[in-house]
Amino acid sequence: MGVAIKLPRLGRRPAAKNSTRAKSESKRRAIKPGAAQPTSRKKASPQRKPRGQQVQGATRKPVATAEKQPRSFHWLNRILVLLATGIVAIAATQAYLKLQAIPVERISVTGELEHTQTAAVQDMVQPALSGGFLWADLSRVQQQLEALPWIHEASVRRVWPNALEIHVIEQLPIARWGDGAFLNHEGEVFRPSKLEAWQGLPQLRGPQGSAPELMRTYQRLVDLLKPVGLSVAQLTIDERGEVEARLGGGQRLVIGGVDFLARINRFKAVYRSELAGRMGAVESIDLRYARGVAVGFSEPAGLSATTSKEEKA
């Protein structure tokens, strides 16, 4: 008994593959570059995405649109600024003109005035007030007041809205200087018109420029002699610096130019011990000695404290 065996056909499958490749290549050749490819009517089945991966949806490309530029108002701002500046300038000018037109309507004078009249002060400062309240020359007013003989110091200030306040300090005469002037407490020379009321003041004499130093010497001598009850009527200093005083009783006191304090203390000691009861007969007292004083009497008298001229310093 025989067995039939069916052998497979070799070489047919490769032929099929080759035919398929040929068809695909012919299709590729048929498609021109840039031509739209036909789409299949069948919808491709969506492929499943792995878990954890988000599905991205379709996005539209933004359409480029022209941006609108905002309108510029810089010119309007500049106009407003210029307008505001003009208004401020006009207001300031009007205020300035009004202040300039304000006159000085009241002048008050304060201070202890014994030799200067208030009305005279007010009349003197009027020419300096021609510029009105705002432009009144206060420094000129002050200089005019301090030029008056009896005015030692003056201060002037504005008092709103239309007044001036003047404070005056008068001279305080301490002594007469020479024959026609006075010295104040600072040793400054001033020359008032009326001298009669002050003739009782002590008189100081000296070379030009020596007034301040001589005033200090006078005040020092007055303080030293006050405890013993003596006063000073006159004090002079010469070109060599030699100081000489005349006491209130008319006695001549020669002090010299050195050792001022030591010589006055020596005189006070002699005065207390020997001269207190005899000053009416004393004409002169010379302190320019090393160990004592020389006393001259109007009548001869003995005095143990008197030294000889050989011991004169």
TrEMBL record:
Protein family per UniProt: Belongs to the FtsQ/DivIB family. FtsQ subfamily.
Q: Which organism is it from?
A: Pseudohalioglobus lutimaris
Please give the biological process terms from Gene Ontology that the record holds.
cell septum assembly; FtsZ-dependent cytokinesis
Q: What is this protein called?
A: Cell division protein FtsQ
Write out the entry's keywords from A to Z.
Answer: Cell cycle, Cell division, Cell inner membrane, Cell membrane, Membrane, Transmembrane, Transmembrane helix
How this chain sits in the membrane, per its record, is: Single-pass type II membrane protein
Q: Where is this region: Disordered?
A: 1-67
What the protein does comes down to: Essential cell division protein. May link together the upstream cell division proteins, which are predominantly cytoplasmic, with the downstream cell division proteins, which are predominantly periplasmic. May control correct divisome assembly.
